[in-house]
Write a structure and sequence with these properties.
single chain, 7-stranded mixed beta sheet, 23 strands, globular
């Protein structure tokens, strides 16, 4: 726990100090000074440890040993995570240069571009920076053309680009992409226009992770040759090798609403099935020859790590394989093999290897769910004694589902704002199906030397995967299958888990004081939730949110009714709703009424792309409808909102409108944006660029 808290502190300290080096001090020296704090914490821990040894014969100083170890672990975690994050630092010059890069992973096709994850090897340019070497990860976006489509992993490129740090869009309660990007090891992003890059060679060397990724692609290619396609291919790839790239939005939504998303995330459930299979097969040998058991356990561990290799060593799989490896070793003794100590050792080893795994959602959900199984499930299972085999199996499955859901539900609500109500029915269906699919898929892969038998078994696997998908679609259509639009913040999350831990302790230590503490935590949780809700009540306002592909103005009343007036007749409202959903959930607001045509109601009018609301007028300028028009009496426009479809200038509109302020949408190019800002400066009109400022909210 102190090691994890130190990691969280180091992460917060890094992002708090990011971009704020001391005056006249180079960036590297500033980072060195900021990194001294974990060093002094570790030094204090070592001093306390020495004092604990010095006074070890005195009982009243026995607490010094625990405090010293905790302080050392805290400082170690803070120092390690800051060292990992500082590797992503890059000296941004703000000017375009020629860089040499190597494509690290298979290029990924996006909606309008091709994304390549590359490693920056050097910069080529003037003598001052010639042959300057780097080792940073950079995301490069290429236009969708035949040349970019031919790029492969390992290609060496020269690119002419202006690298820029990642940036959020500035919308309230939006996903923090900057932290996510840096925690994944990214340093910069850039768009490479056609003609600004060239392939110079090919890097034949491959890292261990790249070799693992290649073998995973070979397995997926084998599935395609066996006739798997669409959702069946996507689900089977996710279940067996952790490849979720082919999952469509529909199948993701089906599994999410039904409460089966954990099945698509390759983790402890799947590794547990494989462990049980290998353990059963090899136990048949060591039951006859007891001396074979250590070698059998070693074979099981090697097989599990081989499976992790084919999945590309994702954090969830590595976590599960480490835990089951420790479980296998502990089976050599008679004591209870799987305990919280085993789980804690697994977490500690993983975080020592990569401290940033602490912020991985799958990592958090996995450990919380397994901890809940260890702490809650035994008590639930003993509530009702069941003697018959099949009812006992069903009762065990239900208690496992309930225990895991109790622990994981707060995190699921925190990250996904959703709670699946039919999770018991889902697990009763999906766990047996996943067991059959996984075992059949392993046998199908093992039959590769026998193509005829393999093809027959592939037909069986297709039927199993299709049956699982159809069953979950049926559960998705049930009434009240999920509760959406939920909102909790991090402090509510902490208070809930404190309440849960102290509640479990009250069952073990039956005293009045042990009951008071969880009740106090519950009171704090309810009070905090009520107070935070009172501060999140809707206020009458006009907002311009920074969402690409949907230029619009959002109008909100004090009662919570809202309208989304779009500048375009075909806006990307799906992206808009996905971006703003957390903000609306926090304010307990329903989705707005989307307007693409003229509309009028009491207190709100939308006509000819002009919004009139609460005494304000907003003109949404997306086309040339006002070109070559004049008026003897110019209309007062409080906000002129210009998006990508308008090709004219602002001065020609002054004969129609008396403009008080101009807002520039993110869809405008940098050149176009700078031109309009210069024109506004010349006309003495206030101008706001959403690309620079982010979202703009005006309270009325």
């Amino acid at each position: 726990m102190p090691f994890a808290v130190g990691i969280a502190y180091g992460d917060a300290h890094f992002f708090g100090q990011r971009g704020e080096s001391l005056p006249d001090v180079p960036v590297k020296i500033s980072h060195l000074l900021s990194g001294l704090f974990p060093f002094w914490i570790c030094t204090a821990g070592v001093v306390l440890l020495f004092l604990a040894y010095r006074f070890s014969n005195r009982y009243r100083f026995h607490w010094l040993y625990g405090v010293s170890v905790f302080v050392c672990c805290f400082g170690l975690g803070a120092g390690m995570v800051e060292a990992c994050l500082h590797r992503t630092d890059f000296p941004f010059s703000g000017e375009a240069s020629v860089y040499q890069v190597v494509i690290q992973e298979r290029p990924e096709a996006k909606e309008r571009s091709i994304l390549c994850r590359t490693r920056l090897e050097g910069r080529i340019g003037d003598k001052a920076v010639a042959n300057e070497e780097y080792d940073n990860t950079v995301l490069l976006y290429f236009p969708k053309d035949s040349a970019a489509a031919a790029l492969n992993r390992g290609d060496k490129l020269w690119v002419h680009a202006r690298l820029s740090p990642p940036a959020n869009n500035g919308n309230p309660d939006e996903f923090d992409y900057v932290r996510y990007f840096i925690r994944k090891g990214g340093s910069a992003t850039a768009y490479i226009p056609a003609g600004h890059w060239r392939v110079t060679g090919y890097n034949t060397s491959r890292t261990f992770m790249q070799v693992a990724s290649d073998y995973r692609e070979k397995v997926v290619s084998l599935y395609r040759r066996l006739g798997f396609q669409d959702d069946n291919l996507a689900v089977l790839s996710a279940l067996t090798v952790g490849d979720k790239d082919n999952l469509s939005e529909d199948i993701r939504e089906t599994y999410s609403v039904a409460g089966a998303s954990h099945v698509l995330a390759l983790s402890g459930l799947h590794i547990g099935f494989l462990y049980a299979l290998f353990f059963f097969l090899l136990s048949l040998l060591w039951r006859r020859c007891s001396f074979f058991k250590p070698f059998g356990i070693l074979i099981i561990i090697l097989l599990l790590w081989g499976f992790a290799f084919f999945t590309g060593f994702s954090p969830s799989v590595v976590r599960s394989v480490i835990m089951f490896s420790l479980l296998g070793v502990s089976c050599l003794q008679r004591e209870k093999p799987l305990t919280l100590n085993t789980l804690a050792a697994t977490a500690f080893l993983m975080l020592v290897y990569n401290p940033l795994w602490l912020f991985d959602v799958g990592f958090q959900l996995s450990f919380v769910a397994v901890s809940s199984l260890l702490l809650i499930q035994p008590g639930l299972y003993k509530l009702i004694p069941v003697k018959r085999r099949i009812p006992r199996y069903i009762w065990g499955l239900l208690t496992v589902s309930v225990a895991a859901q109790i622990g994981a539900a707060p995190l699921i609500i925190f990250y996904f704002s959703r709670f699946s109500t039919h999770f018991l029915l889902t697990n009763l269906w999906v766990i047996p199906m996943v067991t059959l699919i996984l075992y059949s898929a392993v046998l199908m892969l093992a039959l590769t030397p026998f193509p005829i038998v393999q093809q027959w078994l592939a037909t069986v696997v297709k039927g199993l995967v299709n049956a699982q998908n159809e069953g979950l679609r049926w559960i998705e259509q049930l009434p009240l299958s999920s509760v959406d639009g939920l909102w909790v913040d991090v402090w509510e999350l902490v208070l809930f888990y404190l309440f849960l831990l102290f509640l479990l302790r009250s069952f073990a230590v039956r005293s009045a004081r042990s009951v008071y503490i969880p009740l106090c935590c519950l009171l704090l949780l309810v009070s905090y939730h009520t107070v935070s809700g009172s501060f999140s009540t809707p206020r009458r306002s006009i907002a311009f949110y920074n969402v690409r592909g949907c230029p619009a103005v959002y109008c909100l009343t004090d009662e919570g009714r809202s309208w989304l007036a779009c500048a375009d007749t075909l806006p990307d409202t799906f992206r808009y709703h996905r971006t703003l959903a957390p903000h609306w959930n926090r304010q307990r607001l329903a989705a707005p009424e989307t307007l693409t045509e003229d509309y009028h109601t009491s207190g709100f009018t939308f006509r000819d792309r002009i919004v009139s609301y609460a005494g304000k007028r907003i003109c949404l300028l997306h086309d040339d409808r006002w070109q070559n028009k004049t008026s003897e009496y110019p209309l007062i426009i409080d906000y002129l909102y210009i998006s990508g479809g308008y090709a004219g200038d602002i001065e020609r509109l002054t004969s129609l409108f008396r403009i008080r302020a101009v807002i520039l949408d993110i869809s405008l190019s940098d050149y176009r944006c700078n031109t309009l800002k210069e024109e506004c400066s010349r006309l003495a009109i206030p101008c706001i660029s959403m690309k620079e400022r982010g979202a703009l909210c005006i309270y009325l």
